[in-house]
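Lecture 7 notes: from sequence to structure.
We start with the chain below.
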Amino acid sequence: MRRRNLIAGAAGFAAAWPLTALAQTDGFRRIGVLMGYAATDPAAQAQIAALRQGLQKLGWEEGRNIRVDVRFPGGDVSAVRTSLMELMRLTPDVLVTNTNLVTAAVQAEVGTIPIVFIFVGDPVGSGFVSDDARPNGNLTGFANSPALVRYFKSAEVLASALKVKLVALSVHDAAEIERALTRFAAEGNGGLIVGPHAVTLTNRDLIVTMAARLRLPAIYPVAFYAQAGGLISYGLDPVNQFQQGAGYVDRILRGTKPADLPVQYPTKLQLVVNLKTAKALGLAIPESFLQRADEVIE
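Predicted structure tokens for the same chain:
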């Protein structure tokens, strides 16, 4: 029986007191951004640049009428809380978050400040909003796909028909990823489905490298995995979501409530195939499949 694995990152969140920003005195509107990436991650920098460019096009110029304060706590919940405390001392008008892990940690501690989330899975099922059309709270934003649990359960529906055994690996850090992938590969005849999560995003170079070393075919949720050497990626463009996110931040700064801004879902997904990786794995990708790809990396 062929095997396939879904990598899932999981972490618990402890609720704390609601945080409230103090009144501003410098005349600037402030945007606090918490990213589920490392500060050195080029993908994170591209997404922040897209947010800033989008805001500038809408009339918000840093140093003139806004300040954008960015923190990169990655996939560590305690680091998210520390970064959030730092931002709250800067009195933000709006908070921007990405990934479910970061968004959940911020939601647990912020009760009234508008939050625009980007690149999260299943906002209703994850408890971020009560309804996609009318979020009915202080959160709204842009979703990518089902949350990891539903991601896995959706695959389970087809697994038996395809004669595929699904094995969920719950990983929280680089060390667990290394151990889990090494054990999994030792059983042979397997491949990976990597789910979108702060843990997998921040450790994507490790995952791509190990998949190549262990000769595990893998499909990833975002294009930058394939661009970094992963076999195939299929998913939305986070840069585009950050550009759209600037529009929601603009509307909130001009008085719109998050509850009046429906959650948005991607209308286009990107398929990227890395032929160099396919050849290294000894895989032949059908021409019909390559013709469907938005990008083929030779």
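Points to note: The chain is about 35% helix and 20% strand. The chain has two domains: 2-6+148-235+269-297, 27-144+237-260.
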